[in-house]
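Need the bound structure for GMT, inputs here:
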Amino acid sequence: MRIAIVCYPTMGGSGVVATELARHLACRGHTVHLVASDPPIRLTGCLPNLTFHQVVPPEYPLFRYRPYESALAGRLVRVAEEGIDIIHVHYAIPHAVSAYLARQTLLYQNKSIAVVTTLHGTDTTLVSQDPDLYPIVRLALRSSNEVTAVSYALAEETQERFYLDEPPIVIPNFVDTTYFSPEKREANLRAAFASPEEILLVHASNFRPIKQTTQILYLLDRLLRKGLAVRLLMIGDGPDRAQCEHLAHELQVWRHVHFVGGIQDVAPLLAIGDVFVLTSAYESFGLAALEAMASGVPVVAASVGGLPEIISSDSGALYPPNNLTAASEAVLRVVNNLAAYRMGALRVAHLYDAKRIIPLYERLYARHLKVAT
Ligand code: GMT
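Answer from helper R.:
Posting the output first, comments after.
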């Protein structure tokens, strides 16, 4: 099949999922065009049948904002003229809108092309609640040949919010268990952050307000007060990182915390952890939690969005959102039975192995190929 995949290139799960999907599809022999405003962070190496297209909208003195949506639509039309069967956009805004425009343009050329839209969470639960965006996103969703969501929670919420006749199809996120694996664990690297007697908590995110990262510092403070020998490794960068660093000093826990910033190759850092912590106010899926589990690291997370779908009672522990007493009890519960939880985490992660999930997308494309032709 010939597929154009559109995504955000920035540090965020939707871009990671789209880039990994593009890579896996190309490895399986499909012709893939990856389209974004910049090379996506996980786009490494080179595959002969994977082409990256960078969209750079023109500047003009009249413009306050560059017309990215239109430039993206135009680029999709050009890519389609080279021959594609499917446009698969990740994140509804503005990608699904551009795909709609591209498809309408192609119809005037008597070319029919199928559009698949994958929702990642904040695109429909938060951003499109803006009254100007809502009707446009609704049109883009209703006119997509297929809408998929990365969890049942997101599918249900999107159907309700947009009054869709059918809920989106759930195709969960996936993980490459050959890349995220306990085998990446290196004793020397771990020793740089914690001694063998200490528990190493790990967190990885883009430090956006929705991640509520400051709560992780309060949690660390509670665990230290309970007498746990514990260290915290904070991976990633974003708007709330400075506030977290400041809070680490204010709570006088800074000696126990390492902020390593935005790292491209996170697998070795995840693998040295004992417990992965996620305090988000909302997560449609929680890809970082899945990557941690594939690394053999159980997850303690707030029970929000799609997280209860991937964190089972043997792969980690859920706690009521914002309840740090319950969060610290959950960490202690996991720490006291770490070996069993590690096995549980690996078991669950393998259910979401790329090898199992990528064929679901292939089947979906094949179905809509027939609709388009
Ligand atoms: O979480 C973010 O800030 C990034 C965001 C994105 O759109 O890139 O992540 C969302 O998509 C990921 C991949 O499907 C999910 O694993 C994340 O849970 C989801 N984030 C939220 O729902 C907040």
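Comments: Residues 2-174+354-366 form a domain with the Rossmann fold fold (CATH 3.40.50.2000). Residues 4 and 79 are 8 Å apart (CA to CA).
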